Amino acid sequence: MTDPTTLHPEVEGFFDEATNTISYIVRDPASNACAIIDSVMDIDYAAGRITYEHADALIARVRELGCDLQWIIETHVHADHLSAAPYIQDKLGGKIGIGSKILVVQDTFGKIFNEGTEFQRDGSQFDALFEDGDTYMIGTMEARAIYTPGHTPACMTHVIGDAAFVGDTLFMPDGGSARADFPGGDAETLYDSIQKVLALPDDTRLFMCHDYGPNGRDIRWETTVAEEKAHNIHVGGGKTKEEFVKFRTERDATLDMPKLIIPSLQVNMRAGEVPKDRDGRPMLKVPVNGL
Ligand SMILES: [Fe+2]
User: Fold this and answer.
1) Percent of the chain, pLDDT > 70?
2) How far is the CA of 180 from the centre of ligand 1 (A)?
3) What is the pLDDT of residue 133?
4) Separation of 262 CA from ligand 1 center, angstroms?
5) Which intervals hold domain Metallo-beta-lactamase (predicted)?
6) Nearest-angstrom CA–CA distance, 189 and 182
7) What average pLDDT score do residues 274-285 get?
8) From ligand 1's centre to the CA of 18, what distance in Å?
9) CA of 176 to the centre of ligand 1 (A)
């Protein structure tokens, strides 16, 4: 195992313009092993059409690098894009992993989407369910999953050497933080989770799951703990929990639902599989006034 204190994984980000999501390939410099974090499956929701351009780009890059894909990680059940995890697994192998609190998310949205008994609420759609502090290997690199709930109950941050993949726990310093008003979300919990991330060493590289280029700046997805502590507009510069919770709650009340929340939840709570109707055809539902 590479010494975690000197481990510096190679990280490549792939920006998805349609959903402002960044997917990552994380490579072990000491072996040919890699992981993909937060992949995206393309959907034209109005047309009910799913395609794989973004996932194919990730797959092509892994092949070009000659990497052995060992893990396909979801930082959480995304509400704004669909995961391509099973498509990538089919092409490249690897285990699909998510936080064990996925069971809570499956229970909540299993009810909202009125799923039948064929939808298991036990996380069995995933290959690995991480508990807080669990470690797993990517080649010689030890990765550690830490619970960072608040945006959703199952959010985890994955720390690999000097790199941390924070999901939607934080945005870039000028973007602040993600909303905490989805079912199971909580602003106070999110604040505590952000403090866990900010307790990592100051020079830890932080990789965001989303960036919206606030105030017209170019899209960026990498920052550091020191930068976030000093400059994050929602939690930096010593903002208190009370200030954060008040701001976050007021802001969330003004936000529209993400455009792709309905298809995203149905697919992502199944580890990226599109649900099927009773004849086995891929089919999505819309719960009317259900969200
Ligand atoms: Fe999210």
Assistant:
1) 100
2) 10
3) 98
4) 13
5) 20-210
6) 13
7) 95
8) 15
9) 14
Give the number of C-alpha atoms closer than 13 A to the C-alpha of residue 209, restricted to the C-beta side: 28
- CA 53 to each of CA 14, 57, 59, 134, 287: distance values in angstroms, whole numbers, following the listed order: 12, 6, 10, 32, 29
Comparing C-alpha atoms, which of 28, 56, 143 is closest to residue 39? 56
| C-alpha 101 – ligand 1 centre gap (Å) | 15
CB atoms under 10 Å from CB of 247, counted, come to 17
**What pTM does this model have?**
0.96
Q: Round to whole Å and give the CA distance between 70 and 92.
A: 9
Gap from CA of 240 to ligand 1 centroid (Å) = 23
9 within 8 A of 17, measured Cβ to Cβ: no
Residue type, 148: T
Is the pLDDT at 160 greater than 90? The verdict is yes
> Tokens 């905490």 correspond to what residue?
180
**151 Cα–ligand 1 center, Å:** 7
pLDDT > 90? residue 62: yes
pLDDT band at 4 (very low <50, low <70, confident <90, very high): confident
d(CA 78, CA 56): 20
Round to whole Å and give the CA distance between 25 and 139. Answer: 14
Q: Which residues of 130-166 are buried (b: 16+ CB within 10 A; e: fewer)?
A: beeebebebbebbbbbbbbbbbbbbbbbbbbbbbbbb
Asked whether the predicted pLDDT for residue 101 surpasses 80, the reply is: yes
Ligand 1 center from residue 71 Cα (angstroms) = 20
